[in-house]
Amino acid sequence: MAALTKPLFPLASSAGTVFLARFIDRVGKGIRGAPRDALVADVTHRPEQRGAAFGLRQSLDTIGAFAGPVLAMLLAAVFAGALRTVLWIAVLPAFISVIVLWVGVREPKLQPASHSKKRSVELRVRAMPQSFWIVCAVASVFMLSRFSEAFLVLVGLHAGLTPAMTPLALVAMNLAYLPVGISGGKVIRPYAQAVSPGGWLRRSGRGHGVLALASNPVLLIVGALLWGLHMGFTEGVFAAMVANSAPKDLRGSAFGIFNLLRGLVLLAASVIAGLLWDQVGPQATFGLPACSPFSRSSRCGCRGITGSGLSAVA
Q1: What 3-state class would DSSP assign to 298?
Q2: In angstroms, rounded to a whole number, what is the distance separating the alpha carbons of residues 201 and 153?
Q3: Which pLDDT belongs to residue 44?
Q4: Residue 81: helix, strand or coil by DSSP?
Q5: 294/205 Cα distance (integer angstroms)
Q6: On the CB side of 93, how many CA atoms lie within 13 Å of its CA?
Q7: Quick one: pLDDT band at residue 7, thresholds 50, 70, 90?
Q8: Tell me, what DSSP letter sits at residue 246?
Q9: Domains of the chain, with CATH numbers?
Q10: Contacts by 59-63 with C-beta closer than 8 Å and gap 24+?
Q11: Which of 99, 101, 143, 307 lies closest to 238 in space, CA to CA?
């Protein structure tokens, strides 16, 4: 689904086409994300290594997120800013990926006994333990402070970058994310404090505060680097906590529920951020999370959640 949407971007003549392509692309991501993370959890037999496994998976994904914008900027320079030409070239790696999966990936052979078993798909929401719902609830609250990275592109324009150079903000974010993605998830428990309400929002607030004041490219890059560091130290931890808190036979459903809740909150946060940008300006969009009382003080009323709930899951 993601590959099929890629030609729609260079063909788009209206915002509606871009929205449709992006919507289908995200649906494809949602379908593949939960089973992928469940597979990572299943092949990582030692729970204490899952943070590193998810960090590695995210870091490898980040290599593409880093190389893509860099290549886009180089191609934009080569083709004198013809962005539609660059978007057509971006179609190629998407379809190459599909070909690799089609030709080179095979399902493992099932044991004879498995053929006779009836397979069923059950969501079984009520079977999820309380510890899983604690992780979902806290992560959903945290996501309110982290809206879409697309706002980094808008800040780039506001800071004086040309449209062809705006991916530089995404490059900086992923450059910071890449080295800490693995290290941030190597051991879950020492980083449980990193995903406490105070810890998350303080680290997020620093990046947001710099981006709120980003009137030039230097501040933009600094803010994007801080945002990437913050994400690198927390994403793998949350994924490992979901894997550790969910029953083994329900990990696919667990990641599906977790990603659904995070996606809904991220959508709401991005809509609010967009309204603030249109009505007030970028200072309001990034300044509101930076001025949160949680981001200024670690002595927030929610801090005990880490000790009683999240650390227990870790």
Answers
A1: coil
A2: 22
A3: 84
A4: coil
A5: 9
A6: 10
A7: very high
A8: S
A9: 2-67+131-313 (1.20.1250)
A10: 59/177, 59/178, 59/179, 59/181, 59/182, 62/174, 62/177, 62/178, 62/181, 63/178
A11: 143
